[in-house]
Specification:
16 helices; 22 strands; 5-stranded parallel β-sheet; 3 domains; about 25% strand; FAD/NAD(P)-binding domain; 7-stranded mixed β-sheet; Enolase-like, domain 1; alpha/beta; about 500 residues
Length: about 500
């Protein structure tokens, strides 16, 4: 008891001295050097970056009994996905989808609207921001609920076990383990100057104050197509310039081909096999020049969205002081357990190899947290689904047909069109199809590719099936509710199993 009382008194005395010392102008000069032992906060796990991977890792680590902190350089948590990516883009897509449905389908449903349908674009953007704010507040709540300490400021390693957080209240933190989850940022071609006014990234495209007259999009990937559809629905002319032979070049070729047809029918101008060579701004106009199959392509618009991908964010982290190495692509190098070259430091999400997907980062965050707790976690990178939230949606998991051909693997194909589906007809969403790839001899499902309404939700049953190495016939034998979109997956599996689809 006497010893305990002495310790308590000593700590109180040190705290008083430190308080007085911090008020002294020489604190910044001498504080870290002489009082580090008093002011440093120590943790089991510190997560750098509060995007989907980071905040999920922090929550799981804390759930497993680790004293955990998270550091985020911005004022709000959630990272790119929540603040300027997945969530705000879906909010705008939903708003404009409602507008399009009203224009195209209201009358056929027996709904008559007197007068013109007016769009308050500013209010639409305001709603988008409200959705973002609600979600960021939700993450703040989760941090408190799970006893995760939150620090706002830019983190950099000062040694393998310590970081400096430069924010409104500078902090020095130490930890037994670190998880780097700093994500990525938009990249541009070297000759393109992003003025963020007329030549913009996805971040600026989500907060424009006006609807473009002609939006030129460089890059026919997920970001370009989703934001292109937002502004197309609002009345903009949209031109997409893609270097590869197909839009969504990483997707199954059949999906890309069919989606191209659908988007062109909607009003998209799509130029594939076109290499952009110049982007220039003249006043409020942007001129894009590209080498296309039929000669030089010249487009003039009032906005140009550069959606050529993203690059890992590692600047200013002081990785060299921690002994963390980068690979030739600027990503943090990790082993199969997501350990960096410094064994006590892990990295997850966009900052390492693999697809730049929020749910991939989440899975990696949980994996590392559980690994540190002595558990035996699991990730199957072949079964990370991808989704595109255009109308119609795209979703896929597993191998594409082109990949199976390259591998020389014998396979069979099952396909079912959405136009043959009762629910799709009832909802007037008949574009697209489900494509199932299965092993030619064992019938094991190797890949599922969906173009159609609610594809992003439909893909989940295929992920489950493939995780347990199900055959196409396994899904075909499962009773699916009628009428639902999921019946299309069953029918495609019936087609793959023995060409015995019922409704085709």
């Amino acid at each position: 008891m006497l010893l305990s009382k002495k310790i308590t008194t000593f700590v109180a005395h040190c705290s008083s001295v430190l308080f007085l010392f911090k008020r002294n102008p020489y604190y910044r000069l001498l504080g870290d050097k002489y009082f580090k032992c008093v002011i440093m906060k120590n943790y089991d796990v510190i997560v750098i970056g509060a995007g989907p991977g980071g905040y999920v890792a922090a929550i799981r680590a804390s759930q497993l009994g680790k004293k955990t902190a998270i550091v985020e350089k911005y004022n709000t948590l959630g990272g790119t996905c929540l603040n300027v990516g997945c969530i705000p883009s879906k909010a705008l897509l939903d708003s404009t989808h409602l507008l399009e449905d009203t224009h195209k389908h209201a009358i056929s449903h027996g709904i008559e609207i007197d007068g013109n349908i007016m769009v308050d674009f500013a209010k639409m953007v305001e709603r988008k921001q409200a959705v973002v704010d609600q979600n960021t507040q939700g993450i703040n709540f989760l941090m408190k609920k799970n006893n995760v300490d939150v620090f706002h400021g830019k983190a950099s390693f000062t040694s393998p076990t310590e970081i400096q957080v430069e924010g409104a209240q500078p902090e020095t933190l130490s930890a037994t383990h670190f998880i780097i989850a700093t994500g990525s940022k938009p990249s541009a071609l070297p000759f393109i100057t992003l003025d963020k006014q007329r030549v913009i990234t996805s971040t600026e495209a989500l907060s424009l104050r006006e609807v473009p007259k002609h939006l030129i999009i460089i890059g026919g990937g997920v970001i370009g197509l989703e934001l292109g559809q937002v502004y197309l629905r609002l009345g903009a002319k949209v031109s997409v310039v893609e270097y590869a032979p197909n839009i969504l070049p990483t997707m199954d070729a059949a999906i890309s081909k069919e989606l191209t047809k659908v988007l062109k029918k909607q009003g998209f101008e799509i130029y594939t096999d076109s290499k952009v060579k110049e982007v220039s701004r003249v006043g409020d106009s942007v001129i894009v020049k590209a080498d296309a199959p039929n000669g030089e392509l010249v487009l003039e618009g009032d906005y140009c969205l550069v959606a050529t991908g993203r690059r890992p964010y590692t600047e200013g982290l002081g990785l060299e002081k921690a002994g963390v190495q980068l690979n030739s692509r600027g990503q943090i190098e990790v082993n199969e357990h997501l350990q960096t070259s410094a064994a006590h430091i892990y990295a997850i999400g966009d900052v390492i190899r693999g697809a730049m997907l929020a749910h991939k980062a989440e899975e990696e965050g949980v994996y590392v947290a559980e690994l540190l707790a002595g558990e035996k976690p699991h990730i199957n990178y072949n079964l990370i689904p991808g989704a595109v939230y255009t109308t119609p949606e795209v979703a896929a998991v597993g191998k594409t047909e082109q990949q199976l051909q390259e591998e020389g693997r014998a396979y069979k194909v099952g396909q079912f069109p959405m136009r043959a589906l009762g629910r799709a007809r009832a909802s007037q969403e008949t574009d697209g199809f489900v494509k199932v790839l299965a092993d030619a001899s064992t019938d094991e499902i190797l890949g599922v590719h969906i173009l159609g309404a609610r594809a992003s939700d439909l893909i989940a049953q295929s992920v489950v099936a493939m995780e347990y190495r199900a055959s196409a016939e396994d899904i075909a034998r499962i009773c699916h509710a009628h009428p639902t979109y999921s019946e299309a997956v069953k029918e495609a599996c019936l087609d793959a199993t023995a060409k015995r689809a019922i409704h085709m």
